[in-house]
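The following record pairs a protein chain with its ligand, alpha-D-galactopyranose.
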Amino acid sequence: MNEAFHRIYGARPDGIWAAPGRVNLIGEHTDYNDGFALPIAIPQRTLVAARRRRDGRLRLHSAQAGGPVIDLRPADLVPGVTTTWGAYPAGVLWALREAGHRVGGADLHIDSTVPTGAGLSSSAALECAVAFALADLYGLALDAPALALLAQRAENGFAGVPCGVMDQMASACCTVGAALHLDVRAGVHEQVPFAPEAGGMTLLVVDTRVKHDLGDGAYAALRAGCERAAALLGLAALRDLTPAELPRATRALPARLVPLVQHVVTENARVAEAVAHLRAGDPAALGPILSRGHASLRDDFRISCAESDLVVDTALAHGALGARMTGGGFGGSVIVLAEESATRTLGAAVTAAFGAAGYQAPHLFPVSPSAGARRIA
Ligand code: GLA
């Protein structure tokens, strides 16, 4: 990173920061309903080498995007001006300034191992790495959750994606060997020990290579549907509905909103169930919860796709403990929890099934709960 930075900007960086991508174990499309989620950070991460600038400008370079340095003047830091990948780091600087923090400019060089469009939160990793870098460079007393909220603000207000806060919280706050139990309404999180390898298990990520894009309107429509349902029920958010109240609530709603509510309410309950099993030292018990979560996303929320369903069905047919699509949906990645001894055959079966179906070969890799955003040099 130092050499690349020097080559691009002709100087040494002041430091290097890292922020990971994530997979969510359970609790999908619950964050913007004020609910619960249980993500882990993955080893794939985004690095940012950064140096302060006195003139307020933001210069950006990415090893993956290549191309010339993007040079943004303070007047460019308004929503809508930058529409490329640069909107994410630019949005972070905008969000910090908008929140009243005194932040000058910076030169940034970015390099990442988080695949883009794979539902692994590459954008949150980028935002969080930049947020941590700028906060350190300018001596801001902001903790990890505060930086996560600013990163989300960047994505909502600058990049124009109406996401919840799960991805940014995961990237900012996760720790090695634990899942992050998020309570979005309360604004609190706790680390719940999760070490699949210690129990002889593997958590496998299968990137279906079906590119998902949160900005394409489908995500916003789902969010709007959930918010409409809560409003019709006279609730602040779907978080306020319990499973016992579901039958009465669904009778009061238009048919198109019922499956959305059904998913969110049962999904919040699945998070609680999963956390209880982890706390009891029984990570294998997550398996059926993951699979039930997938069925709910496929049948009620309707955001799975043929490729993700094929991964889940094939993995379960070859002995997986559980499997589900993870993230926003419409493609992206699936997580599979399996006994370590079953992982190889199961992975081969998934790849073979993709070949037989004429799909592009999936990308499979094991993950373990990894570190959240931090300065590394
Ligand atoms: C995306 C969003 C998150 C969350 C998930 C679905 O990853 O960025 O805020 O809503 O989808 O759980």
